[in-house]
Task: inverse folding
């Protein structure tokens, strides 16, 4: 028995969609799985080299948690070759993809026949919110709410380029959450939610200029987290008249500019020259989530 699991990276929040909006992108975590006489993780990407190769591996722990959920005591031992395009702790859903991969690993090994909704609920229970895990399962853009159960709206994304700007340092989610205010006033909350509401409408209508204008107006998290990103203001100033808008991906430190393909192709070389210390990628949304072949 040999199979491959591929899980797309995700970008979350998308401005004011804090903990509730995410989009799948064309970077992948890939597992090549083969039944064996013992469990072994083989990491084929350099940035994975320090991860455990035994049962303490996070992906295996999620698979075991999934097995326990469905009252199965033993996972068949296997050799799992892991490759990943997704950098750690950069706001591109690396932990969410590992959660989804672990659930799918158990699903395949144990023939659980989980539905997409069941995978989303289990992943959300583990992660705490659906913004990253739901698009990793479903693909496209997912707008989600979690309170014991998960409600999601799935929106395919087309004709939008994600200019992804990755600083050379990690930012842990817990550190990014530590700078957020404990509460907002009623008037601030109304204003912040109105920005989020129109952002959702713009996504549903594929109105990228409106979404681009709104992502930078977020009041939920970006005003507080930008101080943790040394180049944010300079990048925003350099790009803002040439793209739809710029936002922090997830908890950061990755920044993403929403752009047309034409805008990205026209200016990418210039942006790279202006900010050589940052890694630049042009990514696309993918409308298929985790898949097995």
Result:
């Amino acid at each position: 028995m040999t199979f491959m699991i591929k899980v797309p990276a995700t970008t979350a929040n998308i401005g004011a969609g804090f903990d509730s909006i995410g989009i799948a992108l064309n970077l992948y975590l890939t597992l090549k799985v083969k039944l064996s006489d013992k469990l072994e993780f083989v990491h084929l990407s350099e940035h994975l080299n320090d991860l455990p190769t035994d049962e303490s591996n996070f992906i295996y722990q999620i698979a075991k948690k999934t097995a326990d959920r469905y009252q199965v005591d033993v996972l068949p031992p296997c050799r799992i070759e892991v490759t990943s395009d997704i950098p750690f702790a950069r706001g591109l859903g690396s932990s969410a993809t590992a959660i989804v991969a672990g659930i799918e690993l158990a699903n395949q090994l144990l023939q659980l026949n989980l539905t997409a909704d069941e995978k989303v609920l289990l992943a959300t229970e583990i992660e705490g919110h659906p913004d990253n895990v739901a698009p990793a399962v479903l693909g496209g853009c997912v707008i989600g709410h979690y309170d014991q159960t998960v409600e999601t709206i799935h929106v395919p994304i087309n004709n939008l380029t994600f200019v992804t700007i990755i600083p050379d340092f990690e930012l842990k989610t817990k550190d990014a959450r530590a700078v957020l205010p404990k509460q907002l006033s009623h008037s601030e909350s109304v204003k912040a939610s109105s920005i989020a509401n129109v952002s959702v409408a713009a996504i549903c209508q594929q109105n990228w200029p409106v979404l681009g204008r709104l992502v930078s107006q977020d009041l939920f998290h970006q005003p507080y987290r930008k101080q943790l990103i040394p180049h944010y203001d300079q990048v925003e100033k350099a790009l803002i008249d040439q793209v739809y808008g710029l936002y922090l991906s997830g908890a950061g430190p990755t920044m993403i500019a929403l752009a047309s393909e034409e805008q990205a192709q026209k200016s990418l070389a210039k942006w790279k020259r202006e900010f050589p210390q940052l890694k630049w990628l042009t990514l696309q949304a993918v409308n298929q989530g985790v898949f097995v072949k």
The domain at 161-283 is CATH 3.30.70.890 (Alpha-Beta Plaits).
